[in-house]
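Narrative of activities, Objective 1.

The group set out to show that a structural description can be obtained from nothing but a protein's sequence at a throughput compatible with the screening campaign. Below is one input-output pair from the validation batch, recorded exactly as produced.
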Amino acid sequence: MPRRFTDAKALFDDLLDRHEGGTARPVAYPDYSAFASVVATDAFIKELRQAEEAGAVSIAGGRGSRREQIAHVRLEAAHALYHHLGRTPIASLAGDAHLRLICGLTLHSQLTEVAFDIFSAWSRARTWKGFLPADADNLRSAFLLAQAILDGRHAGIDYRTFSRRVAGDSKALERMEGAVVRLLDGILDLPPGAKPRETLRMLGLEKFAPPLLISGQVNLAEADLSRASPLYLGIPPNEAACIRFREPPAYMLTVENFTSFNRHIIEADPGCLGATIYVGGYPSLGTQNALRTLATMLPITVPFFHWSDIDPDGTWIFRTIERAIGRPLQPHLMSPEIAERSG
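Output recorded for this entry:
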């Protein structure tokens, strides 16, 4: 549809917006049917003529009975129209924002590439993941936080302390979680379908670590739990070294889903012949470290299994746990036949 206007400045801004978006010599039209009065029409035409005199636009007249009217206005010289309006070109705004974004930062090479991609989008009057040049200062915090994670400065620190130390704002990470994860995607191996907070938890950033739930013939440090026989034991992941196996389990099974975890230990292994661990969906860094600790306690003859959904995220969790334990891991109820049968 033709772009029609009764406000000259709005018409000029539209021409420049489309120019910045990549349109060569865009055209706009007066909307004669919508003018409030003859006075308003005359004022509109006067502004168009002034811009034409400045060399910014060209004006085409109508034909036949409308030869006294302006048919359309075409952008001729963007720089002249910028000057005429007192408007800053988007390229300058994007350049200034890009400078605010990365000035003084030492960034991973791929973060530097992303910063250039952001500048390229802004210079074409486009957003980057919803961010505009006016958001450069907030986005700078996301770059600071992402680089700090790549540098390992987040290890063992809670959300707000990490955010305060790196960005000078204890709530910056909570506000910019999505942007931080987008910056890290492609540099780190991240779960494909996880929410930003789940991803950051997997990397080691979490407000409170969820407990590690383990079922089996286990004691806790010097405490003998053989008579208590709890359904499962919940401990902080960093206390995994306190677990004592009363005897080597028949197997070790990690489970992604809490319902599946409970059904397995109640229905499939009520005698606790194996050791079954709930990893809490995407395993946090603390959970990964705990699994590594437990794996070192067991002889190589104990087989390790994992049970996840049969999808890209389940595959990612499987590979993450396999790396964490540093030994062969076998899928449990994760065959292609089961996936096909379940739709």
